[in-house]
Amino acid sequence: MEEFKKILITGGAGFIGGALIRNLLINTESVILNIDKFGYASDLSGINSTNYAQTRHKHLKINLVNKNDIDQALKTFQPNLIIHLAAESHVDRSISNPLSFIDSNILGTFNLLESSRNYWENLNLEKKNIFRFHHVSTDEVFGSLKKNDFFNEKSRYSPRSPYSASKACSDHLVRSWHHTYGLPIVITNCSNNYGPYQFPEKLIPLTILKALNGDAIPIYGDGSNERDWLYVEDHVNAIIKTLTFANIGETYCIGGNEIKSNLEVAEYICKILDEFVPKETPYKNLISFVKDRPGHDQRYAIKSSKIKGELKWEPTYNFENGLRETINWYLKNLKWCKTVMKNSGYKGTRLGI
Length: 353
Ligand code: NAD
What we know:
Elements (H helix, E strand, L loop, with lengths): L5 E5 L4 H13 L3 E6 L8 H4 L4 H4 E5 L5 H11 L3 E4 L6 H6 L1 H24 L3 H6 L1 E7 L23 H20 L3 E6 L1 E3 L8 H11 L3 E4 L5 E6 H14 L5 E4 L4 E3 H15 L10 E4 L14 H7 L7 H14 L1 H11 L9
Parallel strand pairs: 1-2, 1-4, 2-3, 4-5, 5-6, 6-10, 7-9, 8-12
Antiparallel strand pairs: 9-11
């Protein structure tokens, strides 16, 4: 990692990007330029809570649809490494407003690749050899699995929502910029992340907040859809392992090996809340089944053997530990939840607490 003295991160005001920047500020001496359009889910308070944010983290409001702004940022900052996380990321929003996913995830990635290629091609040989473009993607690009099946790096792309199709397209673009132009890339496809600072529209924080409010906890369909849950710190450590050890052009699948149905996730949360903040009736009584999401994928699960074998990465959190940490964090940070929801105009969760 020492060679990456200047790191440009896209989407660093989001959930995973924020966790990655916090880790890099604490564990490296790199200077970070965070470019983000500062959309509804963006927030810098986690990054600003670190001691190094003032000196080694800069942020610029840039929408990746504006290529000139990216060119200018690269020219001025001169990064050795680009980590691309910026994306519209919520499947439900991709169903109601697919265009913003095409803009950010496809056009945004294309612009970033073209700017990066132009920048990289004009570097001197030494800097050119160090430079790396790391693309963060999702297991959703592989489609939906049958019971007991797993995705791996050889799985066929078969995206089925506007979100996953736009991310699949971004993966194809990144890979093709490597094969056609030689851009030094690595791609990681990870499973569902959870942990502190996740915007309260996603399943785990949404369930925690609904339960605390005594509101119905909505579960799509019969709740049997399965996801492989990865604690965000474990994901960040996997990204750092790949930055340090992966060969150019490689792809790694990253999963927590904690496959749970949505109903199980809600029940786990309710059980922990019964312990942490007991009420007269168990929280699970609030679980309420709602009309299924259109085209809802049944199962995602990842075999992480490649990254475990080649890069010696292992998740350190099991679901129970990660969830306890997460619930504790939300209980202590209800004010943060209120603020981000107010700033974004999001009204999906009432926070009367
Ligand atoms: P997030 O929605 O919390 O953050 C994404 C950030 O990207 C936001 O701050 C947003 O403003 C920014 N962004 C979006 N479009 C942009 C644009 N056009 N220009 C500049 N900035 C833009 O998402 P997250 O959960 O942190 O996800 C980060 C990445 O990880 C995404 O690429 C996502 O596809 C991928 N991923 C997420 C998960 C998960 O469970 N959260 C799982 C697998 C992969």
